[in-house]
Amino acid sequence: MAFNILNGILNGGLTLLTTGNPVAAVANAVTSTVTPGTAGNGGNIAPNTDPTIAAQQQLDQAYEWAQLGLNAENMRHNLDMEWQSTLFNEAEDEKTEQMREMNTLRDVAMKQREADISILKEFIKTVKD
Predict the structure, then answer these.
(1) 68, 58 in Cβ contact below 8 A?
(2) What residue spans define the domains of the chain?
(3) What is the distance of C-alpha 63 from the center of its chain?
(4) CB 7 within 8 A of CB 42
(5) Is the pTM of this model over 0.70?
(6) Residue 43, phi-psi category: left (phi > 0), alpha (psi -120 to 50), beta (remainder)
(7) N or C: which end of the chain has fewer CB within 10 A?
(8) What are the DSSP calls for the chain, one per residue?
């Protein structure tokens, strides 16, 4: 047995308004308060008798659909960001590799210049002698 105090107050008040009898109103309020029911179903509230429950269920369903749409948009955005990040990383890796190649070529060119300078010095020594 569940207690539904709000149901008791409402039924007692309605009985008092309709009959004007305070004793009947109190009796109706007490019996309505202890009417068998569950905590989720106050004895007189059911989806087929209370239109607000069906409306609330429709609102909940609409909210769930909107939430699903937001989640899908968030996943799409995350995938786009991952794709952009991958492309950026690949471009940076390519740029790093090109710079490494340029440094190697520069080092080889410097070694070649040093070799050329040393050959030129030797040539100048032989010409002077």
Answers:
(1) no
(2) 1-45, 50-129
(3) 14
(4) yes
(5) no
(6) left
(7) C
(8) ----HHHHHHHHHHHHHHH--HHHHHHHHHHHHT-S--SSS-SS--TTT-HHHHHHHHHHHHHHHHHHHHHHHHHHHHHHHHHHHHHHHHHHHHHHHHHHHHHHHHHHHHHHHHHHHHHHHHHHHHHH-
Give the dihedral of Cα atoms 24, 25, 27, 31; nearest 10 deg.
130
Across the 129 residues of the chain, what is the mean pLDDT of every consecutive 10-residue run?
Answer: 69 82 82 62 60 84 95 97 97 97 96 93 86
Q: Tokens 């190697």 label which residue?
A: 104
CA–CA separation, 44 and 57 (whole Å): 18
